[in-house]
Design goal:
Largest sheet: none
Radius of gyration: 27 Å
Number of helices: 4
Helix content: 55-70%
Number of strands: 0
Shape: elongated
Strand content: under 5%
Structural class: mainly alpha
Oligomer: single chain
Length: 136
């Protein structure tokens, strides 16, 4: 068997996966494209293992390792996507850019400083009594 056939097929699969990662907006489709890219890598590993006639079959062993990592990645990735979809209502990647809490507004900053002043008064701060540490 010629090495060119599986190498060309793997290159086409990898390019298709790369296009899917770069062009898609849906997080699930991006995860599927990553799996397609990993499949192309696995095809190359097995093809080169057969072409080199490796007695240890290192390419096939590495392929099994990549399959196990891909299964873990898709499981954790889908769990994260489902939780984000449940929380935000969308799996669109462009709308998920800001996963952090929104920056505080002036009202929340003022309310936080008022609460700190109240806590200091409750703790005895400013009265010569050391402030108590609050534990959560």
């Amino acid at each position: 068997m010629h090495l060119a056939y599986p190498a060309v097929l793997a290159a086409l699969l990898f390019c298709t996966g790369l296009y899917g990662v770069l062009a898609r907006r849906n997080a699930i489709l991006v995860l599927m494209s990553v799996e397609l890219m990993l499949g192309a890598v696995n095809l190359n590993l097995v093809a080169f293992d057969v072409w080199l006639r490796d007695t240890l079959h290192a390419g096939q062993a590495l392929t099994l390792f990549v399959i196990a990592i891909a299964a873990a990645e898709i499981g954790i990735g889908l769990a994260i996507v489902l939780l984000v979809h449940r929380d935000r209502g969308t799996a669109d990647i462009d709308k998920l850019r800001g996963l952090a809490e929104p920056p505080p507004t002036e009202d929340s900053v003022t309310a936080a400083t008022d609460n700190d002043a109240d806590n200091d008064a409750d703790n005895g701060a400013g009265q010569g009594i050391p402030a108590r540490r609050q534990t959560a």
